[in-house]
């Protein structure tokens, strides 16, 4: 057993979609979450800047004595995951490979779409991972730069969100039977995305798939949290407004949480 917490990092609130799934699947595990909302979105930023910010988030989590770090951010995974994984002596998990693997299993036509930030799509990492596992699969990527600001501003259920999603996804309609939500912010827009693409399209939540891999790694390294703890203590940190973060987080997680502001 290892009763240290699991660290989650994201450019903002999107990684909460991964945290929620982990809480559901592994209710005894404790979480330390850091969301860099003050500098979100990461997607339009240069790779070197994303790498620098990601390392700052990693260093913060290491001060909390975490036993594992989860990159609950596709952009950070695309840019810095390999590098960080090689340099740390604790498990480091990204969201891209679990999402890619699940999309391959779900697709019946071999045509997969990927929605992501500008940097994630530009990196071409989803196509590379998918075609490494399934060479004949066709992958169509689409950058959705307006999605993260909608979520970070708590407008993901608004009429504006419906309009933005419709305009953005027009060119993806009919091009894939399975579409990866290649940014952990996007599941908060899932009902709108599903409505626009059609009910026949299978949406893959890369964050939810990642939570299953976390469970596998905890078992493999034998670092599960003791099940004797009645109420796990989760810690949430943001570089922006704790109030704004808490509103979105409590709505999404369905529970009251405490959020602290930090400056990196």
TrEMBL record:
Gene Ontology MF, one: identical protein binding
Catalysed conversion reaction: L-glutamate = D-glutamate
Enzyme Commission code(s) on record: 5.1.1.3
Top-rank taxon: Bacteria
Pathway: Cell wall biogenesis; peptidoglycan biosynthesis
Protein's GO biological process: cell wall organization; peptidoglycan biosynthetic process; regulation of cell shape
Keyword Metal-binding among UniProt keywords: no
Swiss-Prot/TrEMBL keywords: Cell shape, Cell wall biogenesis/degradation, Isomerase, Peptidoglycan synthesis
Cited Pfam families: Asp_Glu_race
Catalytic residues (positions): 73, 183
Enzyme class: isomerase
Positions bound to substrate: 10-11, 42-43, 74-75, 184-185
Stored InterPro entries: Asp/Glu/hydantoin_racemase, Asp/Glu_race, Asp/Glu_racemase_AS_2, Glu_race
Protein purpose: Provides the (R)-glutamate required for cell wall biosynthesis.
Family: Belongs to the aspartate/glutamate racemases family.
NCBIfam families linked: glut_race, PRK00865.1-3
Name this protein carries in UniProt: Glutamate racemase
Gene designation: murI
């Amino acid at each position: 057993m290892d009763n240290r917490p699991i660290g989650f990092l994201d450019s903002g609130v999107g990684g909460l979609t991964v945290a929620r799934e982990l809480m559901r699947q592994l209710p005894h595990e404790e979480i330390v979450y850091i969301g860099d909302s003050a500098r979100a979105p990461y997607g339009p930023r240069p790779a070197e800047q994303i790498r620098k910010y990601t390392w700052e988030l990693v260093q913060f989590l290491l001060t909390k004595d975490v036993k594992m770090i989860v990159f609950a951010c596709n952009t950070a995974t695309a840019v810095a995951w390999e590098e960080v994984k090689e340099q740390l002596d604790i498990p480091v998990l990204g969201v891209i490979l679990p999402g890619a693997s699940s999309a391959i299993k779900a697709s019946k036509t071999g045509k997969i779409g990927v929605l992501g930030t500008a940097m994630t799509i530009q990196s071409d990492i989803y196509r590379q991972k998918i075609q490494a596992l399934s060479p004949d699969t066709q992958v169509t990527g689409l950058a959705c730069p307006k999605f993260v600001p909608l979520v970070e501003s708590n407008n993901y259920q608004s009429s504006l969100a419906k309009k933005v999603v419709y305009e953005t996804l027009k060119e993806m309609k009919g091009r894939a039977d399975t579409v990866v939500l290649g940014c952990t912010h996007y599941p908060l827009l899932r009902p709108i995305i599903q409505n626009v693409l059609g009910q026949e399209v299978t949406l893959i939540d890369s964050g939810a798939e990642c939570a299953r891999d976390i469970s596998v790694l905890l078992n493999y390294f034998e670092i599960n949290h003791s099940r004797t703890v009645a109420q796990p203590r989760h810690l949430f940190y943001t570089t922006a407004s704790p109030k704004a973060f808490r509103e979105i987080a409590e709505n999404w997680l369905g529970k009251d949480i405490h959020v602290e502001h930090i400056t990196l």
